[in-house]
Amino acid sequence: MATSGKVIRCRAAVAWAPGKPLSVEEVEVAPPKAREVRVKIVATAICRTDDHVLQGHFPNVEFPVIPGHEGAGIVESTGEGVTSVKPGDKVIPLCLPQCGECCFCLNPDSNYCTKSHFYESQTLMLDKTSRFTCKGKQVHHFLWISTFAEYTVMPEYAVAKIDAAAPLDKVCLLGCGFPTGYGAAINTAKVKPGSTCAVFGLGGVGLSVVMGCKAAGASRIIAVDINKDKFAKAKELGATDCVNPKDFTKPIQEVLAEMTGCGVDYSFEAIGHKDTLIAALASCNISTGVCVMAGEVASGSVIPFDPLLLLCGRTWRGTVVGGWKMRDSVPKLVSGYLEKKFNSDLLITHTLPIAEVNKGFELLRAGKSIRSVLLF
Ligand code: PAD
Ligand code: ZN
User: Fold this and answer.
1) Would you state the pLDDT for residue 305?
2) Which ligand 1 atom is nearest residue 201's CA?
């Protein structure tokens, strides 16, 4: 391509400091170095995790930073030694890499990778430099993939080639939100047919949990949210009951126990609050119940909890991007989407130009959107 090997000037939504709105700027994006890929992002959705970044909840994210991690695009150029993708390929950048060599990548039961941001900071490339500059200042990457930039650079093991027929403005959701929730149900919890599930939080992640529970054959899916406007979509996607904790004076776990007898078989937290994590844990049955934590609480949070909650056998698990080994699984998820095995389009409530990125965050904070897709 004509731009190969050159610095590209393009638009990006930059977060200059925590707690401030994003600012759409012209940035310079350096060419990819060895084993790196430069991608032209076509579409990117807004996930609550990006809002956590803007609020400064992750101490290992350095400002200024270009957030965004639910994107899809086309490879513009590749650095030396890249073999798995080539210019022109449609790709999804991976918010959880798969290096293929670490102890977890080699473990078939794990989808974690030691190249993840939980292990080492992904605000700079592997050589500890950034490919982004704006107004003469270095701008940091987020999770290596920074999909709020029209062109972005990432290591080869943080990108997956997908089917050329995939609509990028739709499959961008398969970069994070949908696989997280859907996989939390089918991979992490391994929901069994005929079981009862409770899903706390009905955003893009929680509604994808509802879809996963339904696909796994759960017979009762109780959707829990303090925003009743989320209930219609939850029912459309498979929820059998919808419960608003604000309608009760007693704790929601007691309400769910009364509704189900012994508590649910599987509970999921897709909010990211300490109190709802404990409520979700206490909602699954005391013996064989499984609670999966998908919501991200601010790092450094401490939760006091009664260990007797676990003594009788309950399981408490976390999930990162729904347990999928990302480089292997994202292309298969895209194929599943194209084969209409699931309809993640139902999560898209708004499509906006990148210039309206702050409006997208306002809609999310006001509880008016599920997923807003931003277009470059
Ligand atoms: P979202 O903000 O769209 O949805 C959260 C939902 O929770 C909203 O519908 C709220 O109304 C609801 N809610 C808020 N407070 C309460 C409460 N006290 N009781 C009941 N419901 C409540 O977010 P999202 O779906 O994009 O993300 C959800 C969480 O998952 C968030 O913490 C995000 O950071 C995390 C996440 N985790 C992973 C992972 O790999 N584990 C991936 C992606 C996102
Ligand atoms: Zn996300």
Assistant:
1) 86
2) 7
